[in-house]
Automatic annotation (TrEMBL), chains A, B:
Domain HTH gntR-type as annotated: residue spans: 1-69
Entry keyword set: DNA-binding, Repressor, Transcription, Transcription regulation
InterPro entries: Bact_HTH_transcr_reg, Chorismate_lyase_/UTRA_dom_sf, Tscrpt_reg_HTH_GntR, UTRA, WH-like_DNA-bd_sf, WH_DNA-bd_sf
Name recorded for this polypeptide: Transcriptional regulator
Lineage: superkingdom: Bacteria
Family matches, as SUPFAM superfamilies: Chorismate lyase-like (SSF64288), Winged helix' DNA-binding domain (SSF46785)
Cited CDD domains: WHTH_GntR
Cross-referenced Gene3D superfamilies: Chorismate lyase-like, Winged helix-like DNA-binding domain superfamily/Winged helix DNA-binding domain
Originating species: Coprobacillus cateniformis
DNA sequence: TAGTGGTCTAGACCACTTT
DNA sequence: AAGTGGTCTAGACCACTAG
């Protein structure tokens, strides 16, 4: 862990412990430099992390103020993490509906940014939060990068498997957000009506070296799923 | 304009002009430091801007690679700008459906983060892109901050008015994204069917000093509106 | 092993807010 | 005028990639 990550974690803890509830501000940059014995740049890097998470906002000439945002039960969009981290204390089940290896045709090759004929895992999952169907997920993984997947991995955490077992590091993700009507099959799986609204997130996830390894289309239950982000 | 903003603009232009199409990389940090005669930090700040816009991704030890993303006809979510900037070359019309000044009741005071009784502009607009109804927008402005609004301003660009005439600077924005069914009135305005899907963005915009001045709920035409963002 | 991005420091000065 | 965040510099060293 870098110094600025350490400082960011410390500050996040201190904010969550309400240490600054009187002032609604964190200490000044100079004070933090002294407290943690680091340079200004390191403090600023730490603070940038917290700002992106929506915990703070800076006011030039005045201080770094703590935010009070109501993000109850929402999924945080500005991260490569999934539902899991945003629903602490809930029971999440991933039901594997379908898993197969296919060869990329022209269309798949195009959005997977790979050659035609590349082996691809195609997976369908139903994600269930606290016994209620939450989302239907259609995912393509490049098998040249994720060499092996099975039902067990797919039903637990694929991300953890990729990170901890395969030792791959995530870089960034593109997200396309839209809405459409549910298909009949989706409505049955989500226990909603056909033609009910669905919020769709297409998620293209890249490794740190810039290669795309995963493209998902996730169909969320519109009565349950709400998303949150903060922009500058 | 700061030096790093200048460098970021220059680089964005050079990328758009395909200057780096052979290498698919921009010059190294050291090269850019020399070219623009600035320090490493300045280059890094510039590059961070381009990374957030999704134009670049960094690979440690290798270079800064140019991205090729298909964001045709989408609205970029990671910004406080609206539709306007994302639809160059299109004709945008804002039809004012309703404008009135009200006093904040308990509920409004809560989400506008103001005292009860604060004067508030409540505005309804229909946004039309290239003659097609695009979104229905319900907006609250704190009248203690935005002292005056009228139909003309509301039908042109409110943001430009706030920025250039009132000389206020935007800070950050929270966005909540969800889906629901259209109301009957919305379906008529958007020329869709009642109970058709709608993608909803609730947008809370803050000034640089951290005060909330604007809360909108925007109901987008699901057949036209698609959103894009990039996350780390 | 050389090239390239990432972290970190120390210090100067500027822009804005608050008193 | 004093306090506080924002920009900028010069330089050292680390982490990772690629030939």
């Amino acid at each position: 862990m870098t110094k600025y990550e350490f400082v960011a974690n410390q500050l996040a803890d201190r904010i969550n412990n309400n240490e600054f509830k009187h002032t609604k501000k964190i200490p000044t940059e100079d004070q933090l430099m002294q407290e943690y014995n680091v340079s200004k740049n390191t403090i600023r890097n730490a603070i940038k992390i917290l700002t992106k998470l929506g915990l703070l906002y800076p006011v030039q000439g005045s201080g770094m103020f703590i935010r009070e945002i109501k993000k109850y039960d929402t999924i945080f969009l500005s991260g490569t993490r999934g539902i899991t981290k945003d629903h602490p204390g809930t029971h999440i089940e991933n039901k594997c509906l379908h898993i197969e290896v296919i060869e990329a045709d022209e269309k798949i090759a195009q959005f997977m940014l790979c050659e035609q004929g590349t082996p691809i895992y195609y997976i369908e999952r139903l994600r269930i939060v606290d016994e209620v169907p939450y989302a239907v997920e259609y995912t393509y993984y490049n098998k040249n990068i994720i060499h092996y997947l099975n039902k067990e991995i797919v039903e637990s955490s694929i991300y953890q498997y990729i990170k901890e077992d395969l030792k791959l590091t995530f870089g960034f993700a593109d997200k396309y957000i839209s809405a459409r009507k549910l298909t009949e099959r989706e409505s049955e799986l989500l226990k909603l009506q056909k033609d009910d609204p669905a919020i769709i997130i297409e998620d293209n996830v890249y490794l740190a070296n810039g290669t795309l390894f995963n493209s998902s289309q996730i169909t969320y239950n519109y009565q349950l799923a709400h998303f949150f982000m903060t922009a500058e």
